[in-house]
Design brief:
- By secondary structure, the protein is mostly helical.
- It has one domain (about 5-110): Up-down Bundle (de novo design (two linked rop proteins)), CATH 1.20.1440.60.
- Helix content is about 75%, strand content about 0%.
- The protein has four helices and no strands.
- It has helices at about 10-25, 35-55, 60-85, 90-110.
- Helix 1 packs antiparallel against helix 4, helix 2 (about 35-55) packs antiparallel against helix 3 (about 60-85) and helix 3 packs antiparallel against helix 4.
- The protein is elongated and about 40 Å long.
Length: about 110
């Protein structure tokens, strides 16, 4: 079994979270405990479920599906942030590209563990 630090999907998700943090700081004060917090919580749940999928074999598929759901939630939340003009179109595109990459890695992982 790979350690979490060896999982490519975990590294990519953690790297994206680190890149998103400075963006979240620039959200309006009224959104600090709403949309910004929701994005952070979705990232934390994403990372947690990646770890659980890696470590708990008999529930791996369930946790992988939860990772997929949190990726979709993050896409929606960042689209909302773009529509509210909290992030630029370019930044949203960059984030969505990275989320898509994580999704492709997840898809390969799910296929390999069928």
């Amino acid at each position: 079994m790979l350690q979490s630090s060896d999982l490519v999907i975990y590294k990519k998700a953690e790297e994206l979270l680190n890149n998103v943090y400075p963006v979240l700081i620039n959200f309006p004060k009224s959104e600090k405990f709403a949309l910004s917090q929701e994005i952070k919580q979705a990232f934390y749940a994403l990372l947690r479920n990646i770890l659980l999928a890696n470590n708990i074999r008999h529930k791996r598929r369930m946790y992988q599906e939860e990772v997929d759901a949190y990726l979709k939630l993050l896409l929606i939340l960042f689209n909302l942030a773009k529509k509210q003009k909290y992030i630029t179109q370019k930044k949203n595109y960059q984030i969505q590209q990275k989320l898509s990459e994580i999704g492709r890695i997840l898809g390969g992982w799910m296929k390999s563990t069928k």
